[in-house]
Automatic annotation (TrEMBL):
Pfam families: cobW, CobW_C. One of its GO terms (cellular component) is cytoplasm. Gene3D superfamilies: CobW-like, C-terminal domain, P-loop containing nucleotide triphosphate hydrolases. It comes from Triparma laevis f. inornata. This is CobW C-terminal domain-containing protein. GO terms for molecular function: hydrolase activity; nucleotide binding.
Amino acid sequence: RIPVTILTGFLGSGKTTLLNYILEDPNHGLRFAIIENEFGAVSVDSKILSEKTEGDELIEVMNGCICCTVRGDLVEALKRLYTKIEDFDAIIIETTGMADPAPVAQTFFIDEEINAKFILDGIITVVDSKNILTRLDEQKPDGVVNEAVQQVAFADKILVNKIDLVDRKVLPDIEARLRGINPTAKTVRCQQSQVEPLTLINIKAFTLNNVTMHTPEFLENEIKTKHDPTIDSLALTFDGCLNINMLKELIHDLIENLGANLYRYKGVLNVAGMEYKFVFQGVGMLFSGNFTAKWEASEERKNSFVFIGKGLNKKTLTDSFMACQCSPSLRFKVGDIILCKTGHWTKGKIVKLWDQGNPYRIELDNEEKRNVWGPIDADDYVK
């Protein structure tokens, strides 16, 4: 699948300068397809030729790269362009300055054909050091989102651009403010948008194994942050193991009730009875989670997660995860005769402990000798 990077940032932040720098740099040896998801003229410097393809303006530029301005539906444009760019190293989609990156990101999860051909690699936000604090502090009418705050909140990597236009002493404060909005994103200082192109691709921010690698970084207490009043970010780590069935119910409720206000979230959880880490990440209502890497024998099993969004109640969110904790030691042992809830109370025998994250596997005392799970070690389920 072709990796896709979403490039976002406020007007004047330096996105177009960055794209031109990438396209004109002969050293990286990569073939990029640049897609400008907006109306208006193509902003990159066209070098060779221009052709029209079904409403999209396709321009071939230096070093074998191309640029395309999409007018209309991004999904359909990507499908049309696939045969022209399937051998390219990466795609960069530049959003408009006022755009919310979430709908573009969700494109790569919702449409099956797009998901089969492309993989979302990461979201990169460019900010203008001279003006970013003013942008973040801008007051909006009720119900109107501050686009600059949102672009920072969704980012996997933030390019702190135009550092030559500000006093270097203010840069730590700017970075602290950005971390206050998004504690998970890596910040990179630059001027004139000059960043090594290879560092912009293959960051694998939406790959579950990568969440496992990077989750501890945003939980380090010594990192300086400055809270932003317009955004809520909760980063938490705690000991203990979680019941998988209670966890599934919690995640379902969170997405159903908070989906519109959830920007980005990711985490690594220690599920009782499982030797593998449960790793999850999501954008808005689009959630992905699975058991990935095995816990190492020497590794301390902890639960770590971060949620970034608007109107999040940190205490409620924390208490909800804490309520999923369970004891690894169970009330019953293999061979015990119990009653389990199967619509009605049914007699059975415990045949296994901690089966696929469930406290009990139970053989029912009936002709079929059917096996069922006791999902939670409580009298409401098993007694």
